[in-house]
Specification:
The protein has 222 residues and is α/β, with parallel strands linked by helices. 15% of the residues lie in helices and 31% in strands. The chain contains 3 helices and 25 strands. The strands form 4 sheets. It has an 8-stranded mixed beta sheet with strand order 7-10-13-16-19-22-24-25, with helices on one face. A hairpin with a 4-residue loop joins strand 24 and strand 25. The N and C termini lie far apart (39 Å). The mean pLDDT is 93.
Length: 222
């Protein structure tokens, strides 16, 4: 794995995870894989009265309280929904938190790949060459992203998604588990527009309009 992909933490070795659901617990495990068990984690939620106690040994704190106590702490947004993730980024930025990127040690990434801040790539994924991932992209376990692909900000790849070469995804696109996008061609990529939703197991063989919802093999509007 490229050593430059996980964001450096401050000397306090502290990381905030916004969200304490299933995604949050998986991101906590990912963070420990990246920085070791000694990393100081906290689940942060946007509730006036967060539940007391800890989850998987990690404290749960209210967003504003955490930001006042630990200003500027690197934060990962562990929210599966693309639209909600963007809103949560805005909330965290408003209280002065910064953002970290996480890439699991068992991810294969070439040196011709760029990542935006806050992007997460989970275990078992492969990202090949000449690929650009935007800000706060979520790539779940066992995904493959092939050559000459561009992924817009806040887009979500569920487990087992496969993107063949020459694919362009817009902002806030959501691809369900095991969805496949066939390869485009040089100068004529397969384009999936902003806010499109691709159902689990779908096979996309052509362009998808913004805001469309598609499913099936081949993928068709639903």
């Amino acid at each position: 794995m490229r050593s430059d992909l996980c964001s450096p933490l401050a000397k306090e070795n502290r990381l905030a995870i916004f969200g304490a659901g299933g995604s949050g617990r998986e991101v906590a495990w990912l963070a420990q894989q990246c920085w070791g068990e000694e990393v100081k984690l906290a689940f942060v939620i946007d509730e006036e009265t967060p539940p007391e106690g800890v989850l998987n040994g990690i404290p749960i704190l209210q967003l504003r309280e955490f930001a006042e106590r630990y200003p500027g702490t690197p934060t990962v947004i562990a929210i599966g929904d693309s639209v909600l993730r963007e809103r949560c980024v805005q909330k965290c930025a408003a209280v002065g938190l910064t953002f970290a990127s996480l890439v699991h040690p068992r991810v294969e990434v070439s040196r011709w790949v760029t990542l935006g801040e806050g992007t997460i790539i989970c275990a078992g994924s492969i990202v090949t060459t000449n690929i650009a991932l935007g800000r706060h992209v979520a790539v779940n376990i066992d995904c493959t992203i092939s050559h000459d692909t561009s992924i817009g900000d806040f887009t979500t790849l569920s487990p087992g998604v496969h993107l063949a070469g020459w694919v362009t995804l817009g902002r806030r696109v959501s691809l369900g588990t095991a969805a496949v996008v066939k390869n485009g061609a040089r100068g004529r990529p397969i384009v999936i527009g902003d806010d499109a939703i691709i159902g689990a197991g779908a096979c996309v063989i052509g362009d998808i309009e913004p805001n469309a919802k598609v499913a099936g093999v081949p993928a068709r509007p639903i």
